[in-house]
Amino acid sequence: MTTTTPAASAVPRTASTPGTRDTPSTPSTPGGVEIRRIGGRIGAEVRGLDLAGELSPGTVHAVDAALREHKALVFRNQHLDDAGQLRFASLFGELTTAHPTVPSVDGQPNILPVDGDEGIRANHWHTDVTFVRTPPKASTLRALVVPPYGGDTLIANAAAAYRDLPEPLRELADRLWAVHTNAHDYAEPRNEKAAEHRRRFVSRRYRTAHPVVRVHPESGERGLFIGGFAQSLLGFGPAESRDLLRLLQSYVIRPENVVRIAWNPGDLVLFDNRVTQHYAPDDYGDLPRLLHRVTVAGDVPVGVDGGRSRTVEGDDAAHYTPSAA
């Protein structure tokens, strides 16, 4: 497996304005597979793999290593079915169920339908399911129906954001803890379907305290672990919490830290949920858009001082993730 950096004229449409390359090259692996950067700080397109086929342990190891480096991987024109997506995601660990509160695809308890027609429009920066104590390790998104324009997904590198912080702000962030909750205005209901989705979303309430700076359990990188579910900071009032979270979040969503994925039917994206945020702009009107999401169970986040996340309100979400045990 080789890593290449395309010339400016060859940069695919999925790339955002590139920043600087600040991570090492992906290790070489079995031939015929190419990893092509699509952003300077985040994102790569993996070519030469058929995800419907059997992947060797060496190939899986190489994809996992590429995920640690690039944070988000795009696999074009795969056209997997539900079983194929489940099989691929399970190569990286045990799977969660679809969601702690939102129903799954009928007959598929591990698959969440991300359906614009049903009001599921995540028009907000977030990391998946951080309101529970053990959020997912990784998420896969598979495009079934995409609009002819709009409907992209933006993914941000929270480790690069942490490195961008001025030293005094970084030292403060290292000591902060945020309370994440699903019981807030995550997405403004746009119609009755969206309102019903919101009612389901908050039908079981969760509040969890996570370190604002999370140490990646595999790479050791530090990243800002905040996003839309982070609503307050321990030890600070509401106004101060909002101001500090907004300041830290502004580093995550800097253009140089973001890659924009333009979907085609059959595409699949794998991203590291421990060190990224993502956003799906609501810019496609009433056009249909349907993705299927499958997530890999994660561990308990750990902060710079070794402190581990803790539940503030709600249960341990054992019905959602095997990591709760």
Automatic annotation (TrEMBL):
Q: Which UniProt keywords apply?
A: Dioxygenase, Iron, Metal-binding, Oxidoreductase
Q: Name one GO cellular component term.
A: cytoplasm
Q: Which Pfam family is an annotated match for this chain, by its short name?
A: TauD
Known InterPro entries for this protein? AtsK-like, TauD-like_sf, TauD/TfdA-like
Q: Where is the composition biased (Basic and acidic residues)?
A: 307-318
Keyword Metal-binding set for record? yes
Q: Which family does it belong to?
A: Belongs to the TfdA dioxygenase family.
Q: Which domain of life is it from?
A: Bacteria
Full protein name: Taurine dioxygenase
Q: Name one GO molecular function term.
A: 2-oxoglutarate-dependent dioxygenase activity
User: Where in the sequence does UniProt note compositional bias of the Polar residues kind?
Assistant: 14-29
